[in-house]
Amino acid sequence: MSAIAFPTRLAITEIKLYLREPLAAFFAVVLPLALLLILGATIPDFREPADDLGGVRPVDTHLPGMMILLSVLTVAFSILPATLVVYRERGVLRRMSTTPVKPISVLSVQLVINAAASIVATALMLVSGHLVLEIPYPPMFLAFVGVFLLGSVTMFGIGLALAAAAPNSRVVQSAGAGIMFPLLFLGGMWLPRALMPDWLRVVSDYSPAGAFGQALTDVLSNQAPSLLHLGVMTAWAAAGILAATRWFRWE
């Protein structure tokens, strides 16, 4: 019984610690939701069919896809790796190795909590976008769930590799931002992929965020995601998880 209770108690403690950091919840959950509603409500062009997006409204496909991408990348490259590196830096994981609560439990709980934050953010965006902006729910819901899960695993895997390689909290924060913002650009956050020059779209196709962002947009547009993009995400996920497994240090 005690072996089962320990992870539960640890999870409750970690959730309380997570909620005591309002910036984490703000950037992962509140900011993407607020941007979706504000941009969708205040920019008329987002509510008009766009020729470069196949005649669909940006608010129905591109905008929610980019806000989901923003939420997942914020968790994967800012919140998750920073927490793990701080724990390692302060000796939390080393001290836990002498107790029945093993460091792997901390890693597992952190993954679950941060994954839950991304899921909550995505669910809130889908529901709020539908109620406020009349954004339709994903017509290919199972495909949407599959793309979301694969993309999240991909980004979390790379984020864990970052946490494994970073020597301290200052480095991981700077490196996380240095990775996240270029990935957001390649994902189509500021320049939709349809407007990218051909060479840049190819680079985007083979980037994890470009593949994830386009796959999200595809399923929100009632189109099957490209096998290329699914394969790219799978390859990046495997590479990130392999690197994190080989490099990760508990102390």
TrEMBL record:
Signal peptide: none annotated. The keyword Transmembrane helix applies. Keywords: Antibiotic resistance, Cell membrane, Membrane, Transmembrane, Transmembrane helix, Transport. The keyword Iron-sulfur does not apply. It is a multi-pass membrane protein. The lineage of its organism: Bacteria, Bacillati, Actinomycetota, Actinomycetes, Streptosporangiales. It is found in: Cell membrane; Membrane. Pfam families: ABC2_membrane. Belongs to the ABC-2 integral membrane protein family. Its main location: membrane. InterPro entries: ABC-2_transporter, ABC2_TM, ABC2_TM_bact-type, ABC_2_transport. PANTHER family: DOXORUBICIN RESISTANCE ABC TRANSPORTER PERMEASE PROTEIN DRRC-RELATED (PTHR43027), TRANSPORT PERMEASE PROTEIN (PTHR43027:SF2). GO terms for cellular component: ATP-binding cassette (ABC) transporter complex. One of its GO terms (biological process) is response to antibiotic. Residues 23-251 form the ABC transmembrane type-2 domain. GO terms for molecular function: ABC-type transporter activity. This is Transport permease protein. The chain crosses the membrane at residues 23-43, 63-87, 107-128, 140-164, 171-191, 227-248.
